Amino acid sequence: MDPRAIGGWDFAALTATEEAVWALDVDEAGIYGKGGKPPPNEDGTPAETLSDAVVRLTNLMSVLETLYSGDTVLLVFPDGTGPALLSCLIAGIPLDKVHELQYQPGEIRFDVNYDSINVLASSLQPPSQTYLDKLQRGRDELKQLRENPDLLRNVKELEYERELEQENREREAKKEEEAQAIQLERRKENETAEREKKEREAKRTEEMRAVTAREVEQRRKREERRRVVQLKKKEEDTNQNSIDGSDGSTS
Distance (Å, rounded) from C-alpha 146 to C-alpha 156? Predict the structure, then answer.
């Protein structure tokens, strides 16, 4: 069974949050564990109250009872709160006292039943000074964490933000690269269009010059033909006048 999810404090160092979580549970969870929820996390990491953890724990026990009824089952918990929570459920102890029954790393308890758990709980009353000191430090840490939400950033969140920042940088660089490529392509297109325009204008000018030259040549040729015709006609008229003059003298 996974340990209790603590939202925005998940993956933080145990020493940075454990005492604050204990103080949260003792002061705010209530006997049914419905209060005292850790802060949420933007990446979707769940934040559970003790009551939420109880739901998962009872579901696990139901599955084990169904599948392995009559067998001996060894439960290994990744934290000390899970087995302590199970002890509270077995013995009917208020959930806000769960950390008085907290298991230490590697601790094994035998003959865990209603009576043995209540005997253990009674032997822990009143709570030890060590336990009370831990709660007081936890209250101070909890107050500081709530007043400064960014003081404690979990490792997963920091890694996510670094990845997100890197993705944003890469996205911006890609956008800039694409924008430069588009700008370069447009510049090439504009240069090509301008070159083609100049080529068309030069061709048009050359064509106009050629047309003008042909027209000038054609006009010159027409003028030349007209002069030739006029000279020929003048010559013919002169010859005719000479013939007419000769005819008159003979008469």
Answer: 20
Concatenated DSSP letters for the chain? -PPPPBGGGTTS-HHHHHHHHHHHIIIIITTTT-S-PPPP-TT---B--HHHHHHHHHHHHHHHHHHHTTS------SSSHHHHHHHHHHHT--GGGGGGGPPPTT----S-SHHHHHHHHHHT-SPPHHHHHHHHHHHHHHHHHHH-TTSS--HHHHHHHHHHHHHHHHHHHHHHHHHHHHHHHHHHHHHHHHHHHHHHHHHHHHHHHHHHHHHHHHHHHHHHHHHHHHHHHHHHHHHHHHHHHHHHHH-
Split the chain (251 residues) into runs of 10 and give each run's mean pLDDT.
Answer: 83 79 95 92 84 95 93 90 95 96 91 93 93 95 84 61 88 92 92 91 87 85 87 81 65 52
Which tokens go with 88? 């509270």
- Distance, in Å, from the CA atom of 124 to the CA atom of 7, rounded to the nearest integer, reads 30
Angle of helix 129-147 versus helix 14-24 axis, rounded to 10:
100
Question: What are residue 27's phi and psi, to 5 degrees?
Answer: -90, -25
Rounded CA-CA distance 89/73 in Å is 18
Neighbours of 152 (CB within 10 A): 18
